[in-house]
Design goal:
216 residues, alpha/beta, 5-stranded mixed β-sheet, 7 helices, 43% helix, 21% strand
Length: 216
């Protein structure tokens, strides 16, 4: 029992040390356009990560919500046709931005405390897009307990360019050995799962090659 408690203590602190006190959370957002100030957020998925006792990064919890367009938002027909989301379908079970974000952030704040991290950091593919929409929704809904860094991110498009020589999510996944179904792409849940798997693969590959922990 004593040995098990010591191991858990080490696991909690390993994630903290790996990412400079940041708690990485994979985010993918589907929208009704590219303007984060005016266009509606339609879907969001968030995936937390964990490290096992040997330091390998893995997916943990998945949070996923369909979102009702906020009042006065713009719905770009081209974007909706592209991601195949019907914003007003009753089958979506959509909730408000505020309810979805509060639910996600409440759970993430608990995980940050558990892992002894200081702040969350968004992991996303072409992360500036998701970061802008996320932060804009936070501001629009006057949400106070936002644990995420407001401008720093881990961008898997950039990391993939370095590690694999690809920047497109589907191609990066295929090149590193992750199955990718293009027919399921542009769903926040599917893309978040693939992005999380890709990020873990890159981080673990760096560790396997001897890049982490740093040898002084």
């Amino acid at each position: 029992m004593v040995k098990k408690m010591k191991d858990n203590h080490k696991i909690n602190y390993f994630l903290k040390k790996r990412f400079r006190n940041f708690y990485p959370v994979v985010i993918d957002i589907e929208t009704a356009g590219f303007n984060y100030k005016t266009d509606a957020m339609l879907e969001i998925a968030a995936i937390t990560l964990k490290m096992d006792k040997s330091g390998w990064l893995k997916r943990e919890k998945i949070f996923h919500y369909h979102i009702k367009p906020f009042i006065g938002s713009t719905l770009n027909k081209t974007s909706i046709k592209f991601n195949k989301i019907d914003p007003f379908s009753p089958l979506r079970g959509a909730v408000s931005e505020k309810n979805a974000l509060n639910s996600i952030l409440k759970k993430i704040n608990k995980r940050i405390k558990l892992e002894k991290c200081k702040k969350g950091i968004i992991v996303a593919h072409n992360s500036i897009f998701d970061l802008n929409f996320f932060m804009s929704a936070i501001k629009r809904n006057s949400i106070k307990k936002n644990p995420f860094h407001t401008f720093a991110t881990f961008d898997t498009a950039t990391l993939s360019g370095l590690a694999i020589g690809q920047t497109v999510l589907s191609k990066a996944c295929k090149n590193i050995g992750i199955y990718f179904d293009n027919k399921q792409a542009h769903s926040a849940l599917y893309d978040a799962i693939k992005t999380a798997t890709l990020f873990c693969k890159i981080v673990n590959k760096w560790k396997k090659l001897g890049g982490w922990p740093i040898k002084k």
